[in-house]
Amino acid sequence: MTHPEDKPHRAFMPTPDGHRWEGVEHKPYKEDERALFKDISRQTLFSRPDIAGELRYFEVAPGGHSTLERHEHVHAVLILRGGGQALVGDRVVALLQNDLVTVPPMTWHQFRAGPDVPLGFLCMVDAQRDKPQLPTENDLESLKADAVIAKFLA
Ligand code: MN
């Protein structure tokens, strides 16, 4: 994990396929076999026992998305790169660089990159957090009752 004592400065190292930081483990783009998520990579930037939170950087390749989920813990998200759309509760919002998104407790959420642009974002969470819940068929049906959400999830 990243400890400033170990290395107080980690240089930003952009690569053709995304944002990177010196010495930070990069978990490459992956797809879930159940198609829960697609083309999303993850880097934990800060995680220390003396801070009760973690700061992660996620990047979604064009056309990719995060898992549709909900949980008790909250997310504070800052869009750093590219753009796309997010479902937060019953709203679909456009995401542009530097936008802030707050995901409250037990709120369905999913982040999608645009068709031609990646979506890179910082996400702050509790270090101690509950496991995400996935939607049941009934949950999905309720969500898709809204035409805008149905289009977003399609
Ligand atoms: Mn989440």
Overview of the molecule:
- The chain is mostly beta strands.
- It has two helices and nine strands, in the order βββββββββαα.
- The chain has helices at residues 137-144, 147-153, and strands spanning 27-31, 38-47, 53-65, 75-82, 84-88, 91-95, 100-103, 109-113, 119-126.
- It has a six-stranded antiparallel β-sheet with strand order 1-2-3-9-4-7, with no helix packed on it. A three-stranded antiparallel β-sheet has the order 6-5-8, with helices on one face.
- Strand 1 (27-31) and strand 2 form a beta hairpin.
- The model has no long low-confidence stretch (mean pLDDT 94).
- The chain binds manganese (II) ion (MN).
- Manganese (II) ion is lined by residues 69, 71, 75, 109, 132.
- Residues 69, 71, 75, 109, 132 line the site of manganese (II) ion.
In short:
The protein is mainly β and 154 residues long.
Present the secondary structure layout.
Elements lengths: L26 E5 L6 E10 L5 E13 L9 E8 L1 E5 L2 E5 L4 E4 L5 E5 L5 E8 L10 H8 L2 H7 L1
Bound molecules: manganese (II) ion (MN).
Manganese (II) ion binds next to loops.
